[in-house]
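Input protein
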Amino acid sequence: TGDVLETAVGNVFFELDGELTTPRLDGRVLPGIARAWLLERASVVERRVSVDEIDRATACLVTNAVHGPRPAELSGFSAPASGSLADRWRREWETLISA
C-alpha cells in the first residue's frame, strides 16, 4: 500500500495513537508555511504514514498558508472531521491571524 504525502492544496496531519503525525519532508512533500508553524509549536511526529494507517486516525487536519490548520474529513475512511489536537491548533492559528 502507498504512503500518504499531502493534499492538493496543503499538508496533512493525523492524530494517531494520541500523537499528531505528518509525513516527513523526503523530497516528495512540499514544505508549507503553516506546516512549519505547527511543527514549531506542537509535538509532531514526522514519519512515513501509510494509507492503511489513516483508517485508525482519530482526527485529520490539513494546513496551508491561507487557512492554517483546519479539520478535514477523509472520504471512505472513519476519521472524524475534528479531534482534540485538530481543534486546538485551528483555534491557535485563528488567534494568531486575528491579532
The chain is about 25% helix and 20% strand. The chain has a mean pLDDT of 85. The longest strand covers residues 11-16. Residues 84-98 form the longest helix (15 residues).
